Amino acid sequence: AEKKWDFGILQEIYNVKPEAINQYAPLFHELIRKCESRTVLFCTASVSQMVPKGFEDLHAMHIALGKKLQVPVAAAGKAWLTYWGDKPTEEQRLALYDRDKAHPGKKGSYIYACTLYALLTGHSPVGLSHRLPKQPEDTVPGADARQFQEPAWKVHGDTNAAPPRK
Is the pLDDT of residue 166 over 80? Predict the structure, then answer.
């Protein structure tokens, strides 16, 4: 509260209940505003057993809250769904997770980073480096990077489109 930050990013947990996020996120939002910072809602991916419903529920919850608070949503879970398409194989799905099948792995985290980059800068992540600091070069292969960047940029535009002018 003593420092001014550009952004305060609020992230949920995969099993958050609407009552909880709707009760506590506005309180954090007010604290962020008092520090003259901007609130961002970061909607993560759900656990692998909850594809796609868990993702869709989290996304809807964040979109509604974003509208209520008038803040943008970094819709990383939706970017995962967009990357996967309609019928991903189990191998494709699990490639974004860590071994525990609940947390994002390095590739899933790369999509998270692309989603946050798009929201925080307003620029497309398409064309950014595929290299991750202190990681082997093939952690996110260059050929895969664009396939991760494009859904992040698309979802950013779909989620945070400016309202039509009257």
Answer: no
Q: Which two tokens stand for residue 79?
A: 């970017």
How high is the pLDDT of residue 2?
A: 77
SS3 of residue 19 by DSSP: helix
* Best CA proximity match to 114, nearest among 96, 94, 128: 128
* Rounded Cα gap, residues 46 and 60, in angstroms: 13
pLDDT at 10 over 50: yes
Whole-number Å distance between alpha carbons of 149 and 62: 21
The CA distance from 36 to 152, in Å, is 27
With beta carbons less than 8 A apart as the criterion, state whether 79 and 115 touch.
Answer: yes
Q: Which residues contact 4 (CB under 8 A, 6 or more apart)?
A: 35, 36, 37
pLDDT digits (tens, 9 = 90+) for 44-103: 998 888 999 999 999 999 999 999 999 999 999 999 999 999 999 999 999 999 999 999
pLDDT of 161 reads: 74
In the block, which residue shows the tokens 């790369």?
Answer: 110
Helix 142-159 to helix 76-84 angle (10° resolution) is 120
Q: Within the chain, how many helices (H) and strands (E) appear?
A: 6, 3
> Taking a C-beta distance cutoff of 8 angstroms, is the pair 43, 65 a contact?
no
